[in-house]
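CHAIN AND CONFORMATION:

***
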Amino acid sequence: MDFPLNNLSSFHSELLANTELGRLCGKEELFRDRYQIIRIIGRGGFGVTFLAKDMSLPTTPYCVIKLLCPKVSSPNALETAQLRFKREAKTLSKLGSHSQIPMLLDYFVMQGEFYLVQEYIQGGTLARLIRRNGPISEVGVKQFLREMLPLLHYIHSNKVIHRDIKPQNIIRCQHHRRLVLIDFGAVKEQIAQVEDTSMKGVTTHFIGTVGFAPPEQFALRPVYSSDIYALGITCLYLLSGMGPLDFETDRYTGKLHWQRKIQVSPELAEILDQMLQPSPRDRFPSARSIIVALHGNQLDSSLFACLAIPPSPVEVTTAPENEYQSPQAKAAIAIREWKQKTQDKQEKKTLISSSSG
């Protein structure tokens, strides 16, 4: 989403006026003698995201530059923030080898400001697609889970909790047709923790989105199944077009009364109910366990088919634009598809090994 300059809060207007990225927005002058800043495309409590072009490469590809703005007040706090930022950025770089996660192209710190440069994913978010086309069917939601659960298994196996899974952070890529998960919360959380220790009287920051985040995440104790809860809420949105706050909540148990407004098969209802349990102890323990439940506890070729992540149903896709793709872009897509196939084979071997044991 693009944000016109007259639609910015005072906080982000100040960022545009007082940061180098903001001053270069829409101008020919390059940032770091490399990036042409096109426009602002997103904003949040921890900074602003810009669309840019990498003018150092022959094809001048688009990229995304995220400016994170920690509110630290001491040199020691800034040094700690830098160490944590670099550590989490390296983790993002590792995760970016997956075809459903944007590649991290660069990261650096300049004058107390933290920058991530990532691959630009062209496509529409699930939130935008549902607003445009309406809710999808149970078949479409099952296909969505088949695409997302192996990705979630991969993320968690790398000891990472996403912290902010929601329709706005899932993009249907126009090029390779896969769902791509963006905006990991780990980097923001590390910077927020430093902010708390450097400023007296500041409370710890919640990372996530109200309604999609489960209770333990509000208590600042996210676990792997916190992402499972958020994925379940996302399924409700896909089925109904309704946000999590549109459903009634039991004041005593915290459970959502979603089945009063959404009708699905008993099998899918049971899976969603377990994904949406308020207590982590009552949820599915892992993404893999949901995959098994989707396939009736049968670890056979149908399970392996879901790991291959075939193209999505028409309900949640948009037609790709008829645009020229450079040989470099085609090669990059081919490399990503090859990496995904290699990863799928490895996951099949892992599942076979665990099921035989």
Observations:
- Residues 198-203, 299-328 have pLDDT under 50 and may be disordered.
- The first strand starts at residue 35 and ends at 44.
